[in-house]
Amino acid sequence: MQLILYGTSGCHLCEDAEIMLSKVIQARRDNVSFEIVDIAGQHKLEDRYGIRIPVLHDATSGAELDWPFDEERLMEFLHSLS
């Protein structure tokens, strides 16, 4: 599973989402990886995600999980992708 976490630098919510995602992935011990994409300066991404960040995007299905989410909601989202 390949995930993208959209956000911006200096966004404390984005940092919280990254920490939570790392923790959940480590606990699941699945073959899940993610990359962080900074939307700043990328006009298409800013238009799409600007007021929604952080947003977790599954590269395969296109499914997205918008903030706010907690660990339980994040685990449900990941489970739905499996």
UniProtKB/TrEMBL annotation:
Pfam families tied to this protein: Glrx-like (PF05768)
Entry-linked Gene3D superfamilies: Glutaredoxin (3.40.30.10)
Domain of life where this protein originates: Bacteria
Protein name: Glutaredoxin-like protein DUF836
Naturally occurring in which organism (per UniProt): Methylocaldum szegediense
